[in-house]
Amino acid sequence: MPYLVFALKWRPKVFDEVIGQPGVINTLKSAIQKDRLAHAYLFSGPRGVGKTSVARILAKALNCSQRKGVNPCGKCPACVDISQGRSLDVIEIDGASNRGIDEIRALRENVKFSPVNGKYKVYIIDEVHQITPEGFNALLKTLEEPPEFVKFIFATTHPQKVMPTILSRCQRLDFRRISVMEIITQLENISSSEKIDTDKEVLAAIARSSDGSLRDAESVLDQLISFAKDKISLADIVSMLGMVEQDMLFAVTDKIIHKDARGVLDLLDEMINQGKDVSMLLQSLIEHFRNLMVAKVARGDSRLIDLPEDICKRLSAQSGDLSLEEIFSAFNILVNTQEVARRIESLRIPLEIGLVKLAHDKKGARVETAPSKHPPHTQQIKPDTLKNDSVLPIPVEIKKNPDKPDGPAPEEKIISLDMIKGVWNNIIENMSRVKMSAATYLNEGSLVKLENNTLTIAFPVDYSLHKESLERKENKAIIEKIIDGVLNADLRVDFILTKEKARGEDSADERFLKNVLHTFEGRVIRGD
Description:
Helix content is about 50%, strand content about 10%. The chain is α/β, with parallel strands linked by helices. It folds into 4 domains: about 5-175, P-loop containing nucleotide triphosphate hydrolases (Rossmann fold, 3-Layer(aba) Sandwich); about 180-240, Helicase, Ruva Protein, domain 3; about 260-360, Zinc Finger, Delta Prime, domain 3 (Up-down Bundle); about 415-525, DnaA, N-terminal domain (GMP Synthetase, Chain A, domain 3, 2-Layer Sandwich). Strand 3, helix 6 (about 135-145) and strand 4 (about 150-155) form a beta-alpha-beta unit. Helix 12 (about 245-255) packs antiparallel against helix 13.
């Protein structure tokens, strides 16, 4: 019998074997039990999380002649034919290669014919978002009123690309990324059954590299068996994938905590000489500081960190040596490192600069403003050495108020509170480019009054952390400089606390954490 790769050999055959999709599975089970199945489903989610596998299981459940309960028997002719891909009643179509109007017209003609053996004729269309608009339009009427013996199951990784008229005719089920711990558990089951000699830390590394895709994790494990000689070691997966070990991430962070700039450069050089992918190293460091942030705020909750318990304990211990402000500063510097790397060919240079900025002694830091060499609508801010939240020296373009003329403001011009409110989002955006954590704090404030050239910004009483951080000399200097750049107004800022608490169920720290994550993820996704 030919060798079968793990991704196929360990593909789930019944609903109860599907990993990490309880919401989707419970919905389908309930629909089968109550005989309330829709005529069309849209399965959306990342790659390798079980969309096509669940579609096949559903098709088997609908046509199984010996089904008891909701799971197919797997032994009757219908189940065997569907599993082996030769059933005449279950038609699997690749949306990428059958995307035109002619293919959809042929599908419409075939829909009219009754199933050959089973109760239902099931059409499974993978990557359905690649069908052309003309093809979708040709499918609309059939999809809305198909014959009673026809079911459609669409699968896609990009539901936003599916036409709204198609979406409105389907029941949508969203598949989530599978957690690291769930992937580790499945890999342990596979290793035990296949008699593979490996350690849990190896499986954890595989799970982290798979980015929530169980299929990718199974493929990597399969590849490692061919790569390794006897026992699979952590060195094998590090060598094969160019990954960065957790120990290295902890070591780099320790050098940063102890302000050992020379030591952090030596570690970076060692990792590069070992063949580590520098871009993967940078991304791993960003993820590590994210985990430190969650460990500090959530007190090492392994559910939120989604890593083995021993790693969570180490993260919790290391986070005790850093303040939230320092962790946010690391975010800012590392993300800015990615931005600089896009402009030059070498990633090593900006990474060295970023790590040294994090690790050097920042006593006596100050804010400096470079002379403007830009057109009238741009101003360059270059905070070379900020006390707690340094950024790489990148020119930052200040977005001006379009209603404000260039040059010095006329003496008769009066700056009002409403005028500042009108450009406040612009000010926040400029602030986020220079100092993300301070911008996130500032965004939680409310503009209260403008008197004697002093702008008062209020925070709820449980947001004292925001007020204290923004009152630091370097933060106030940047805010005032940006306000001056946008409004041509020499204003001072003052921060106060109100007597009311923030509204909503989340605490101030929880709301702040969500805002930082949203801002950080948005910058990474957009590539700002």
